[in-house]
């Protein structure tokens, strides 16, 4: 094993207090990535508040840190949702500007521990191939990363090599890592922009040919607003859903808050989910969104990475078809800051998810909430099911888009493995489980 990784405390909320750092493992043989120099670019989020204070505020008022709610001004200017749509979301007690739980109102976004004003600088000589090892070591922040003026060739994801793919921007969630190679030709500075997904703030660093140089820092772009697709209603709307299709469950007709609210309270698509106050909504039609670059990147006007652009460089080590499928719903109640798998928070779960050593299992994650969740399984790489055959991209963390679903195949390794959302406060609230892998005799070996 080689590549870009990171370590962090799993004790309480220490990760938010700075107990993390990068881990780089050089390959023992020749590196398939050609580069002349390398830099670690570790993004994180820092707050002067104690993490327990942040969690308490979220529990009392989940929108506490959101200062970008919709306004009458935004309605009139056409920036925000239309009045009827807003009423429907209001009836659901959902806020479409709820893109991030914790924002720049308390966070400073850091690059390698430095705030935006510090101008942390990575040096290069013009013409060099520079490998940047991006690590998202934040507690709660999904970042949009770009370097205006430079194309980024993505060469590794979560530490493992992928077929090089060139993009202008990528979104990554807590725990994900991407290695990119850039080739700055000019003798000048470039700004490395790590914009938080809700665009309340940014991490900023500089790539420069000499110390002390700076480049223009682009302004924050307009914050995205969640859509029907983020609610798991892909085909919803207008005349697209005739009654006969609706009856077959192919789509959900629009027409007033009634049908929307009704369809999102229907547990039929989620028979394994425990009903209760912890489950605010069920996605009526969760879609495979692995071709989606992430909230706010659908219309940026340049190339943005998505999971379907990833393909493993080496053939997958295990190409057996899975023997069974486990479906897990990512559930929550945004109003009460409750997060869980299948409607059961970790404190209430009485048994682990069992797997047999060496067993090949397909895991399908369905997001019944309107937030993205980076789901991480300890001790494994899994193969994303995106049609890449025996070169499926292998990851340890996958961002499940709002209202979306993702499948991956995994070869179970013996042991007890934490399995959780990598949003720290989601995990703390209970979005966690244990995968227990045993041999036929019930032993770990
Ligand atoms: Cu989460």
TrEMBL record:
<dbReference type="InterPro" id="IPR002355">
    <property type="entry name" value="Cu_oxidase_Cu_BS"/>
</dbReference>
<dbReference type="InterPro" id="IPR034282">
    <property type="entry name" value="CuRO_2_CopA"/>
</dbReference>
<dbReference type="InterPro" id="IPR034279">
    <property type="entry name" value="CuRO_3_CopA"/>
</dbReference>
<dbReference type="GO" id="GO:0016491">
    <property type="term" value="F:oxidoreductase activity"/>
</dbReference>
<dbReference type="GO" id="GO:0042597">
    <property type="term" value="C:periplasmic space"/>
</dbReference>
<keyword id="KW-0186">Copper</keyword>
<keyword id="KW-0560">Oxidoreductase</keyword>
<dbReference type="InterPro" id="IPR001117">
    <property type="entry name" value="Cu-oxidase_2nd"/>
</dbReference>
<dbReference type="Pfam" id="PF00394">
    <property type="entry name" value="Cu-oxidase"/>
</dbReference>
<dbReference type="InterPro" id="IPR008972">
    <property type="entry name" value="Cupredoxin"/>
</dbReference>
<dbReference type="InterPro" id="IPR011707">
    <property type="entry name" value="Cu-oxidase-like_N"/>
</dbReference>
<dbReference type="Pfam" id="PF07732">
    <property type="entry name" value="Cu-oxidase_3"/>
</dbReference>
<feature type="domain" description="Plastocyanin-like">
    <location>
        <begin position="322"/>
        <end position="439"/>
    </location>
</feature>
<dbReference type="InterPro" id="IPR011706">
    <property type="entry name" value="Cu-oxidase_C"/>
</dbReference>
<dbReference type="InterPro" id="IPR033138">
    <property type="entry name" value="Cu_oxidase_CS"/>
</dbReference>
<protein>
    <submittedName>
        <fullName>Copper resistance system multicopper oxidase</fullName>
    </submittedName>
</protein>
<dbReference type="InterPro" id="IPR006376">
    <property type="entry name" value="Cu-R_CopA"/>
</dbReference>
<feature type="domain" description="Plastocyanin-like">
    <location>
        <begin position="1"/>
        <end position="29"/>
    </location>
</feature>
<dbReference type="InterPro" id="IPR045087">
    <property type="entry name" value="Cu-oxidase_fam"/>
</dbReference>
<keyword id="KW-0479">Metal-binding</keyword>
<dbReference type="GO" id="GO:0005507">
    <property type="term" value="F:copper ion binding"/>
</dbReference>
<dbReference type="Pfam" id="PF07731">
    <property type="entry name" value="Cu-oxidase_2"/>
</dbReference>
<feature type="domain" description="Plastocyanin-like">
    <location>
        <begin position="100"/>
        <end position="194"/>
    </location>
</feature>
